[in-house]
Amino acid sequence: MLVGYMRVSSDSDRQNTDLQRDALLSAGVDDRHLFEDHASGAKSDRPGLTRALDFVRPGDVLVVWKLDRLGRSLSHLLAIVNSLKDKQVAFRSLTEGMDTTKASGELLFHVFGALAQYERALAQERVVAGLAAAKRRGRVGGRPRAIVGEKLDAIIAALDGGMSKAAVCRNFGVKRTTLIETLARVGWPSAASPVEPGARHVAPRGVVPASGTVLLGSLA
């Protein structure tokens, strides 16, 4: 049995399925076995396509007017056709003349598969080449560092002078997680060696702790 699928990108009057419907009916598809979607090809949620794929049975042929009516991309198209093959359902595209019930159509399908693999390999090569070029110019991947240069020097000096991390975050306008990550990156002692539980920190002479109380030891 022939099962037809149609798709247009929108519900506007300028885009309707009349052309596709006429072509599918001329190809022998029964009007009762037509499924359609009014959605962009980039969308994965296409209820008409889902119903068509659920409707087909072994020995059926899914027919479309044109290849781009079915898949979002070449890899997506191949994935759909492969799933049809697993269900023993053939595929036919009227415009391109692709018909997996024939040897020539099966050959064309394998050519498309090779092209998709080649496309993925090229994309991977471009990514690797881009990263290598950026590395040669001193750039690395990931998020840019939030605390660098003079700001980092000032924060380290403040911490060395006894300022608490909470006060540093308030005064320098940085998030605590960002501060902790930066201190770990530069190997600041407090980041590498946290204070033991129960230990008391005595502020340097003349430094007032965040609580506002002057430690007696600092006035000795």
Structural summary, described in words:
With 220 residues, this protein is an alpha/beta fold. It has two domains: 2-117, Rossmann fold (3-Layer(aba) Sandwich), CATH 3.40.50.1390; 149-219, Arc Repressor Mutant, subunit A (Orthogonal Bundle). 47% of the residues lie in helices and 10% in strands. The chain contains nine helices and five strands; from the N terminus they run βαβαβαββαααααα. The protein has helices at 18-26, 47-55, 74-86, 103-136, 149-160, 165-172, 176-186, 189-192, 216-219; strands at 2-8, 34-38, 61-64, 90-93, 98-99. The longest helix has 34 residues, at 103-136. It is elongated and about 85 Å long.
The CATH architecture assignment of the largest domain turns out to be: 3-Layer(aba) Sandwich
Rg (CA only): 33 Å
CATH level 4 superfamily of the largest domain: Resolvase, N-terminal catalytic domain
Strand content: 5-15%
> In total, how many domains does the architecture comprise?
2
Q: End-to-end distance, in Å?
A: 97 Å
User: Which CATH C-level class of the largest domain is it?
Assistant: Alpha Beta
Number of strands: 5
Which fold name is given in CATH as the topology of the largest domain? Rossmann fold
Largest sheet: 5 strands, mixed
Question: In DSSP terms, counting alpha (H) and pi (I) runs of 4 or more, how many helices?
Answer: 9
Give the helix proportion (percent range). 40-55%
